[in-house]
Each structure stands twice: as structure tokens, then as C-alpha cells.
TrEMBL record, chains A, B:
Belongs to the RecR family. PANTHER family: RECOMBINATION PROTEIN RECR (PTHR30446). Pfam families: RecR_C (PF21175), RecR_HhH (PF21176), RecR_ZnF (PF02132), Toprim_4 (PF13662). It comes from the Bacteria. The gene is recR. A zinc finger (C4-type) spans 56-71. Keywords: DNA damage, DNA recombination, DNA repair, Metal-binding, Zinc, Zinc-finger. The keyword Lipid biosynthesis does not apply. May play a role in DNA repair. It seems to be involved in an RecBC-independent recombinational process of DNA repair. It may act with RecF and RecO. Residues 79-174 form the Toprim domain. The keyword Ligase does not apply. Gene3D superfamilies: 3.30.60.80, 3.40.1360.10, 6.10.250.240, RecR Domain 1. SUPFAM superfamilies: Recombination protein RecR. This is Recombination protein RecR.
Length: 198, 198
């Protein structure tokens, strides 16, 4: 019953992950009631991002500058590279602030089913970065899925002849994980990678 | 670690009701990855609303047209008026599609504590609408709070001398409500308003 523009805004918000029709409506109500305090700030933030949106030509991150803020940060260890499947993975790892180096976004994972081949990912660019930038360590941070692990194996093979320390994320029990509720695959990994008690 | 613009957008989204920092970040990621499909539609929807945002001069609803879509709808019963405290209440009732008439937004509720007096609400405008528009029925749809009910009583007194059918929303058990979990006030209301079994 609201006007077309308000319905359109509700619809656009409802399509965001984490928002449904009901919460989108509450968000719109908040925006229209707080024009100066909420609507205009959100509008100008969106505009600023839309105008400057760019894919980093070095690592494949999405940012408003190219090179992205991470690649341009001199405090980052330029000799350490963390390879991820997607930009979302990069953001998740960066949020944890645990990795002090830079990133490389593959843009997906190898998949026979979906017809994704090595040349569809940024693997050649990764090799070129390793050749050119004097990289010491490459951390393979693929998802713990069949396709993620296939991709990790493929990259490990491609990098065999380079003098880099190649590591991958540990697999095992997640923090707070209860044995009772974990799948057999995770349990098998955790058991296989068991370590001496410190 | 992301650029200032992306952080600003994340912050603006995180302040919407129903979104926190984590879901705002996921939403931003979705927006930057789907520039054409998500970012630009949301941006133009926001722009359209921002440009045309208006408070309905008849009922107080917020819309992009004045009179609002509800007041302008000829299929609505113009002789039946539902009085609510806030625009949010209007939207909630309108969403249910159960009320075929029009609305009147008070802009709040009487409150000694917060110093809200009758002249701070749109009660005079309500009286004028009743005088001018040939209203038959007024439904008082205030919240079931002390202040909401005080406001309803006050309005009922003000409208005493007009030939309108004055009703208010029924109080009682909410759908799915279990006696065991309901407060005494609700139980008392439900008992007091008990009805013969049909």
C-alpha cells in the first residue's frame, strides 16, 4: 500500500543477505523517520562506494582504491601471501587480524562439475607474483571442501619448483566443537592430525 | 583494513535495526560483488525515496507522495478512521490488510513523564478531520501500554460529542499465547472481556 519508491527500497534491502521482508520494512521505516541521521548518511556512503568501486589489480580484493588498502599498507609483510577462494574469505581472515601478510584471491575453486578450470582462476597471476615479488611463504587458505582441497593440491603442485614455504590451514575441531555433534570427516581429520600434548 | 568508504558504508548499514556489524559486512560484500544487480538498484531506490520523502498532510504517514498512497486510494473507506501512535503502527496494521479505512498518526502518546501533552500530538487535526470529512467510525489502535491507554481515554473524551462509532482494539490472549507464559495483566483483560462460546 506504500508508494512504489518505498516498496522498491524495501525490496532492494530485503534482497541483502541477513535481511528478510520484515526486517527490510523495519529498516525502511527507520530510514524514512531519520532522514538526516540515517537515510542521508547511508545514501552518501553508498554513493561513495559505488563511484570508486574497484578490483585490486594486485590481489583481486574489492575496494575503493587500486591497489587495495591491504596491498598498499607498508606495515604488511609483503613476503607472505595468503591464497583464498573468494573476496569474502579475504575479509573474514582480515577481520581476525591474525595474518600479517598480503592476500591473493583466486576468484573461485576448481570444479569439474561447474567446469571451472585452472585458467578460470588467477593461478597464473599468483605464480607471477611469487616469481616477481620475492615471496617467502604461501598459506593455502581454501575451504575445507572437496573442491577447495582439490584446488589447494593443484596450486601446491604448480608451486613445487619455487623456493617458498607452502602451508595450509589446520583442519580439526572448531573452537567449542563437541565431538558428539561433529561429522566423521572432521573427526577423522582431527585424529589424523593429532599432536603431542604440550 | 578496508578503505574508509567501505568502512563508512558498513557502519551506516550496521546502524539499521536488525543488522549488526557482522551482517552489515556480509551485506556490503554482497553489494560490492554485485554492483549491477544489488548496489546500483539499492542506490537508486534510496535516491528516489530521499528525493521525494514527504509526510502526508492528511494522516501523518510517511511516503513519497502527499497525500500518501493510502489517503489517495479511492477504494479505501473514507468514513472509517484508525488512529495510531506512530507511523510504524500504521504500517503494521496496513500490512495485515484487515482495515479497509484510512489512518491518523498521532505522532506519539501522552506522557507525563516525557512531558508529551495533547497539543504535542495531532489530536486537534483528528478532531478537524472528524468534523470535516463525515467520519462514521474511529478505531483507537493505541498500544496496550499505560500511556497508550491514557491517550485512548483522552481521545475518547474529546470525541464524545461527535456522532461517531468509537471502538478500540480488543485486548486478550495473543494468538498462540499460552496461559502459563502470559502476564497477569493480559490474563485479567482476557478474563474481564470473556465472551459466550459461539
Amino acid at each position: 500500500m506504500a508508494s512504489q519508491e518505498i516498496e522498491a527500497l524495501t525490496g532492494a534491502l530485503a534482497r541483502l543477505p541477513g535481511l528478510g521482508p520484515r526486517s527490510a520494512r523495519r529498516a525502511v521505516l527507520h530510514l524514512v523517520k531519520k532522514r538526516e541521521g540515517a537515510l542521508i548518511p547511508l545514501l552518501s556512503a553508498l554513493q561513495a562506494v559505488e563511484e570508486r568501486l574497484a578490483t585490486c589489480s594486485i590481489c583481486g580484493n574489492v575496494d575503493t582504491v587500486d591497489p587495495c588498502a591491504i596491498c598498499a599498507d607498508p606495515r604488511r609483510d609483503a613476503r607472505s601471501l595468503c591464497v583464498v577462494e573468494e573476496v569474502a574469505d579475504l575479509w573474514a581472515l582480515d577481520r581476525s587480524r591474525l595474518f600479517p601478510g598480503r592476500f591473493h584471491v583466486l576468484g573461485g575453486r576448481l570444479s569439474a562439475l561447474e567446469g571451472v578450470r585452472p585458467e578460470d582462476l588467477t593461478i597464473d597471476q599468483l605464480v607471477r607474483r611469487i616469481e616477481a615479488d620475492g615471496i617467502d611463504e604461501v598459506v593455502l587458505a581454501m575451504n575445507a571442501t572437496l573442491e577447495g582441497q582439490t584446488t589447494a593440491h593443484y596450486i601446491a603442485e604448480r608451486l613445487e619448483r619455487y623456493p617458498v614455504r607452502l602451508t595450509q590451514l589446520a583442519h580439526g575441531l572448531p573452537v567449542g566443537g563437541e565431538l558428539d555433534y561433529l561429522d566423521e570427516g572432521t573427526l577423522a581429520q582431527a585424529l589424523r592430525a593429532r599432536r603431542p600434548v604440550a
